[in-house]
């Protein structure tokens, strides 16, 4: 008896579903799904980050090291920017001179920052034992506990830093993430605003040629 009732119930559901399919064109259903995805991306930073990350895997957001020359001309005299690491130790661009310095300005709420972080982590692993290369992941909110929690949650092993002086607009405008690379002489030779796949072979080669 119960099986008969269940079968009738399933038939009823199938009937209603077929009617709804006839009432709503497939194109409309597709539009609704696209709209729902768009709303999810707009209001959920993690979702937007995952979307950008997916596009990276398809070859989008590739950094172009060949475009670095114009940034040398824009920033002739870079000020001695100050930083503090997670332990409170002070450092600066001048103390890091003689090293290749990779600086990334980011925030935990920034979708493009979230998207590119795994790629930066991959790049860092390739250079972590190289004493001639330094990585600084600078939280623009200066919220060390939140930044630490983010890194721990995602199992990133990146060196966290806080900004301890003003940064000129020529280096950091109103966009994050912003990535800067300085050579061993302290010259800015690469600047990029927005997400990028820094784990690419081309960018690794670019970094090694500076080392």
TrEMBL record:
Signal peptide: none
Keyword Nucleotidyltransferase found: no
Coiled-coil intervals: none
PROSITE patterns, sorted: THIOREDOXIN_2
Annotated TM spans: 24-43
Molecular function (Gene Ontology), one example: oxidoreductase activity
Domain Thioredoxin span(s) in chain numbering: 72-211
Keywords, sorted A to Z: Membrane, Transmembrane, Transmembrane helix
Protein name: TlpA family protein disulfide reductase
């Amino acid at each position: 008896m119960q099986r008969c009732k269940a079968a009738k119930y399933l038939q009823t559901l199938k009937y209603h579903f077929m009617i709804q399919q006839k009432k709503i064109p497939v194109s409309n259903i597709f539009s609704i799904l696209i709209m729902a995805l768009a709303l999810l991306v707009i209001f959920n930073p993690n979702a937007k980050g995952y979307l950008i990350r997916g596009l990276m895997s398809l070859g989008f957001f590739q950094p172009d090291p060949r475009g670095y020359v114009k940034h040398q001309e824009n920033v002739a005299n870079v000020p001695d920017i100050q930083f503090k690491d997670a332990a409170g130790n002070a450092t600066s661009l001048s103390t890091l001179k003689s090293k290749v310095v990779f600086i990334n300005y980011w925030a935990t709420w920034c979708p493009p920052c979230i998207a590119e972080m795994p790629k930066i982590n991959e790049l860092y692993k390739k250079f972590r034992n190289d004493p001639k290369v330094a990585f600084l992941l600078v939280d623009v909110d200066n919220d060390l506990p939140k930044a630490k929690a983010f890194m721990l949650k995602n199992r990133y092993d990146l060196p966290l830093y806080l900004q301890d002086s003003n940064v000129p607009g020529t280096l950091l405008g109103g966009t994050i993430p912003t990535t800067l690379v300085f050579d061993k002489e302290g010259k800015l030779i690469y600047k990029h605003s927005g997400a990028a796949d820094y784990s690419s072979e081309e960018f690794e080669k670019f970094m090694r040629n500076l080392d």
